[in-house]
Amino acid sequence: RGLQVGGRSLTWGGITLRLSDEDFAGVESPDGLTAWPIRAADLEGDYVALERMLRVHGRRDGLPQLPDGDTQEPLPLTTAEQRFAAALRDQLALQVIHSRGFGPHHPERDGPWPRSSSRGSTLPQAMATGRVQMLSGHLLEQLVLENGSERVKGAVVVDQANGNRRTVIADLVVLCASTIQTLAILLRTREQGLKDPSERLGTRLMDHVSTSQFFCMPEPSESPQPPLTGAGSFFLPFGRHLEGADFHGGYGLWGGIGRFDPPAVLRRRPGTVTGFLIGHGEVIPQASNQVSLSDAVDRWGVAVPHIDCRWSTNEMAMVAHMRSQMQRCINAAGGEALPLKDLFRLPLIEPLLQGAVALSDGASPPGYYIHEVGGAAMGADPSIGVVDPFNRLWAAPNVLVVDGACWPTSAWQSPTLTMMAITRRACLQALRSRGG
How many whole angstroms separate alpha carbon 248 and alpha carbon 350? Predict the structure, then answer.
């Protein structure tokens, strides 16, 4: 959770990848084919507007599984990354691309907040209009329904300083509280009478399944080392274009080499440069993976969410494929896959690294990657979706759900750019319908 002005926009990694029509077409799940009611063309104008406004970096790679963006010049790869990419191209016929996203924060250019955060981009623009009032230090508990109407008339908010409640009146509510918090708000509202025709609210929660591998290559580090950022890194964007896959869905591998080596005295492998690969894997929507309301309440008496989520055999098969692919790539580049403790001397934190899930050979647990989506999926009709194709609640059309909760499938790409594009599209449609 991000309990501060700006929310989780202050803490995300700044990678901006579009979804493709392969992703929107859906994935096989226990429900059959689970698809989105929109396609890439529906978000094209929103993607372009955001990429231009945020000035994200990236190259045009011409990949069907990862549409090109309207981006600025990519940030350069390190020498080791270039050698890694050449080895994979020549030996394995694999394409390594520049990551797409934000470069390092420059306070003298960007101000105190990075452009990847709402406080460094969209929030100042909104405040500058003079038409925005911001109520910080408050928790949104639930929505308030109009009697005898399929509409919401406002929301109950809790003052976190003293626990006092009040109702804020609104004729349009946009929920973008992050997936699990949005679901908790809707579930608390359902207890007050909000209808759920699909009976799917809170179900089919997803996160990205991930696993990681550190390695070293026989090459000296650059000095100074370029920083690891959303654009200062690379991707192997497989998507669903995978050989020998015995699972549904796709994945990509994110990596960096020569961007985080400690001083020489702390390195166990002198004359080498350190890299990592992390898998981003698509997760199948399953009804049993869900958010519900706990019997417990927080210090303000608000019912807290309970999360029940487990990986299926599909995700475990994907992780096994990821690890095999990682080892294949590292070998091709002449590298050596090693645990972090065998690469760096970290005397103060080594005891903390023992058993760390991110450094294990298996899958990190659900919730570790913090790319959670689903639970109030958009659908073409109210029998399969909680919201419609323009993100309006089927049961209360003056409520928009625009964060990750509205995703029918997880895809494999970092989700934030698409969340922003969906938000922009839904809000513009709401304004048009109101004559704005």
Answer: 37
CA distance 103 to 113: 13
Digit-coded pLDDT (tens) for 191-232 = 999 999 999 999 999 999 999 999 999 988 788 999 999 999
To which residue do tokens 């199948």 refer? 284
Residue 358 has pLDDT above 80, yes or no: no
Rounded CA Rg of the chain:
22
* Host H or E run for residue 21: helix 21-24
| H or E element at residue 186 | helix 179-190
DSSP state of 1: -
Burial 193-221 (b: 16+ CB within 10 A, else e): ebebebebbbbbbbbbbbbbbbbbbebeb
Dihedral angle sign, alpha carbons of residues 305, 192, 140, 385? positive
Let me know the angle formed at the C-alpha of 290 by 285 and 291, rounded to the nearest 5 degrees.
Answer: 140
Residue type at 210 in one-letter notation: S
Q: List all residues 6 or more positions away from 344 whose beta carbon is below 8 Å from its beta carbon.
A: 262, 266, 267, 268, 274
CA angle 299, 300, 303 (to 5 degrees): 90
pTM for the predicted model, two decimal places: 0.94
Residue 214 phi/psi, 5° resolution? -90, 155
Q: Look up residue 167 and give its two tokens.
A: 């109702």
CA–CA separation, 248 vs 224, rounded Å?
42
